[in-house]
Amino acid sequence: MFKSIILYKTQGDFAVTERVEAEVVVAGGGPGGICAALAAARLGKKTVLATDRPVLGGNSSSEIRVWTRGATGAGNLYGEEMGVWGELKLRNLYLNQEGNPVFWDDVLLEQVLSEPNLKLYLNTHISGMETDGKGRIAWVSGFQMMTEKELRFEGAYYIDATGDGSLGAMAGLPYRMGKESRDTYGESFAPVEEERATFGSTLFFFTKREDHPVSYIAPDYAYPRETIEELLGKGGRIANEKMDGCDYWWFETGGMADTIREAQEIGLELKRFTAGVWDYIKNSGRYDADCLTLSWEGNMPGKRESRRFITKKILTQQDILEHRAFEDGAFYGGWYLDFHPSHGFKTEEDNCTQIPVQVYAVPLGCLYPTCDSNLLFAGRDIGVSHVAFASTRIMNTCALSGQAAGTLAARCIELGKRPGDLEAEEIQGVQQTLLRNDMMIPGIRHREERDLAREAGVSSSGAECRGALLETGTFSLSDGGILVFPRRAAGTEFLVESGQTTEVSYQCYRSDVPSRLALGSRVGTMKTVIPEGKSWVRFPIPEGVADGFITLEFSENQSVIFATGEEQLTGFLLGREDSPRYCYPCLKLPDGCGLYGESNVVNGYNRPWREPGSWMSGPAFGEGGEFPWIRLDFQEPKTVREILVFFNPDLSRELNSSRASMWDDHHKFLPRTGMPPELVRSAVIDGILPDGSRREIAVLEENWRRTWRVLPPDGITVTGLILEIRGTYGASRAEIFEICVY
Ligand SMILES: Cc1cc2nc3c(=O)[nH]c(=O)nc-3n(C[C@H](O)[C@H](O)[C@H](O)COP(=O)(O)OP(=O)(O)OC[C@H]3O[C@@H](n4cnc5c(N)ncnc54)[C@H](O)[C@@H]3O)c2cc1C
């Protein structure tokens, strides 16, 4: 189906030039490029993904081994990025629970190879193109190592996901490298004067403990141990025998150089430094490192920053911190504004400064230039200021930008329009496609006219209305804490024990999506009396807060202890601002609050937004042979061609490509040790035929996905659908966020 024509042979018998026709051509196989390519291909566009490495994943690949992080890692609860990237991360969790970076490569390759509309070209460095000189590209070309082929890719749209923005630069599109001045966008975190400096690059190593001593003689180029000793300890830079891989994110240099033109020098400097650190760990006599050796050492520097393009909209600090809404909002970010010193490991400045942010929207306008171009951007080269980039550069956000770019390209091809010429409803069409494919756009509901579920009557075997009563643990306020609950369930009673009658005061915050670090808008200070002994306690909130999540912030209290359990009710969490270890409070829901009612599955939100937004069955899964079910009834028979069901993979816990060893204190990260208990593992959908009989439409077994997509062959005419949940990965309740029927 991919037409590939040999155009001519060059240089005797050495190289051939081959033409490949596609609709969307994506350059760069990192998070941005993979998601762009999969998104465009899944929307039916003949897509090429060309990357210059032998493996997919960009910085997350086993060649570099940066672990994927995002909004949840920066404290945003229920913030885990889904869509195409979420599917890859869940597949990784299913196949690769140890977080081995080598198997992450396999996951990416597997999904790319399984996509019929997508053709992958590895080892292909795009280095040429023909343009009209104004931004429109006729073709791009790249040399593929090992095949001696010069490949010429022709498409209607091109997506630059190279990180460096190589296609944009070749096309002559305007870009920036370095930091804008404070006045450029009025950003208080920007330097007063503009600077050419960027974030630097990094090489990692992984260690392994043998059962016998292993010697290490450093190569001549290694930094001497004295130099390493001088650098260590400054600005939080630590190294020891327990650290591995991403723990060494602070091995950073090159920010004061040109991260593109001087990439080789930066890489060699990093080799000198990493060899020096390893020599120091092995041979300084300060560590228990006799039996330690290196199991892997990086050679391909991970590059943090290079070109950022001048696009229709440049995202800024204010857009992020004020959670500005955009008519063309397309995806979201939620990582910290995470600034690294450009001098890298050679400075005494803190190795990073992280300012927590709440989930914020990023518009389509950041993905395309203002001129008449058929080039879009994805990943770290999109149009953001350096300050905003400090957040958007995180891989999960880069991946979401890729899905948005792939979707936008596909739609522009269908409409025969440039992105900047799309009418409001065409932009809404792109947004609805993104939402249907499991993206989140802050504040925008999934509302498609053709979704038959919207008009259906919804009923179920029962919705959770009591609460989580089973007590298995405790959470003390001795170091303070935060309690999150939905405004709609403000009368909830929590099981609390106190050694004495005490008055507890707390700050109250409101947010659309809760966060343990950027708590939201402060709405007041309240207090409540906790009686001596164990009792059910309500925590009143100020009047006038109509909706959203409420976060209560408690200061230290030595006598108050919350009872906790294993049952997670989405929307309720207890924890501390400085830790990702959340507890699930024992609680009694207020009568009639209807928090987890059936109608939530057709409310247009496929994840928590202002409230949990899910249907949750009562406990006692499968008791007496009865499985929880939810049912849609149409007013008249409908022909159903597609059903989408969105499950809960616990969006408050990170899904990572790989792991570092110092996970908790150092990274505020809690590794998953198994599939999320809440995720539905097996289920069945039956159709109710017009004659009233039931017919099985689909069976799901060993599910690992967040979205179950059912395509009844040739469609099926039904008056209703019944979804029966047969099993989860451990949760005693079944939970569904959204059901769509087309
Ligand atoms: C050391 C370090 C630590 C970081 N820490 C984290 C972290 O903990 N978690 C996190 O999520 N993010 C982290 N980041 C940021 C994150 O890794 C990057 O911002 C992200 O990978 C960018 O994604 P991307 O798809 O735009 O580009 P990349 O991941 O850089 O992928 C681009 C791909 O395109 C290829 N390519 C480049 N030029 C061409 C060309 N001309 N033709 C064909 N292919 C080309 C590259 O080889 C690469 O494979 C870190 C980055 C670094 C360097």
TrEMBL record:
Keywords: 4Fe-4S, Iron, Iron-sulfur, Metal-binding, Oxidoreductase. The keyword tRNA-binding does not apply. It holds the Pfam family FAD_oxidored. The keyword Iron-sulfur applies. It comes from the Bacteria. SUPFAM superfamilies: FAD/NAD(P)-binding domain. InterPro entries: FAD/NAD-bd_sf, HdrA-like. Gene3D superfamilies: FAD/NAD(P)-binding domain. GO terms for molecular function: 4 iron, 4 sulfur cluster binding; metal ion binding; oxidoreductase activity. This is FAD-dependent oxidoreductase. It comes from Enterocloster asparagiformis. The lineage of its organism: Bacteria, Bacillati, Bacillota, Clostridia, Lachnospirales.
